């Protein structure tokens, strides 16, 4: 099995060193999965611009998408990171676990979002009309749908990067379902 180490600041490009410095200032550390992007001289900066782009989704909604997609893709790193971030954005431990299982019965609108994100991920974009109609019935728009697709794609990139590299999880490890 190929072993991927977490690149250190001295092992990455000058551009990535500056990004590492900014991450350290902003959040106090460079998450290992972000560091894995720094194997490429450009991917970390490109990914962070993509991840931080404006969206119509709230932070809580984005975390719900992150949680369910990471569960479908069996990414322990992202399940762990987004458990922490989900709780920082108003979700309880119980709600995080329910979302990871594919529903959010505590909030009908969030439930429609979670079910849609799960269906998109499992079906690789092929979803049942009822799932999409439920999403629209909860007040989401076609623009919201595009933003959900971007959020799903964002998380798939991270999930796949971790599933390939298996860099160590540097967040409290999420509970198994």
Question: Can you walk me through this structure?
Answer:
The protein is mostly helical and 177 residues long. 64% of the residues lie in helices and 0% in strands. It is built from nine helices and no strands. The protein has helices spanning 14-27, 32-37, 43-51, 59-72, 76-88, 93-100, 108-123, 129-137, 142-165. The radius of gyration is 17 Å and the shape is globular. The two termini are 27 Å apart. 37% of the residues are buried. The mean pLDDT is 97.
Largest sheet: none
Q: Return the average pLDDT rounded to an integer.
A: 97
The level-1 CATH class of the largest domain: Mainly Alpha
Instruction: Please report which band the strand proportion falls in: under 5%, 5-15%, 15-25%, 25-35%, 35-45% or over 45%.
Output: under 5%
Helical element count?
9
> Per CATH, what is the topology of the largest domain?
AhpD-like
CATH architecture of the largest domain: Up-down Bundle
Gyration radius, in Å:
17 Å
Please state the structural category: mainly alpha
Low-confidence regions: none
CATH superfamily of the largest domain: AhpD-like
One letter per element, helices H and strands E, the order comes to: HHHHHHHHH
Coarse morphology: globular
For the secondary structure, the number of strands is: 0
Number of domains: 2
- Specify the helix fraction band: 55-70%
Distance between the termini: 27 Å
């Amino acid at each position: 099995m190929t072993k991927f180490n977490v690149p250190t600041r001295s092992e990455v490009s000058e551009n990535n060193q500056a990004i590492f410095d900014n991450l350290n200032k902003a959040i106090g550390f460079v998450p290992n999965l972000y560091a894995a992007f720094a194997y490429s001289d450009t991917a970390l900066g490109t990914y962070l611009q993509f991840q931080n782009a404006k969206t119509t989704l709230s932070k809580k909604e984005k975390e719900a998408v992150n949680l369910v997609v990471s569960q479908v893709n069996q990414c322990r790193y992202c399940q762990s990171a987004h458990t922490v971030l989900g709780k920082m954005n108003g979700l309880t431990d119980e709600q995080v676990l329910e979302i990871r299982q594919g529903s959010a019965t505590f909030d009908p609108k969030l439930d429609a979002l979670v079910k849609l994100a799960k269906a998109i991920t499992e079906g690789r974009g092929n979803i049942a009309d009822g799932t999409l109609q439920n999403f629209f019935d909860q007040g989401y728009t076609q623009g919201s749908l595009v933003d959900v697709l971007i959020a799903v794609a964002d998380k798939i990139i991270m999930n796949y990067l971790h599933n390939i590299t298996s860099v160590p999880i540097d967040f409290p490890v999420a509970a198994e379902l």
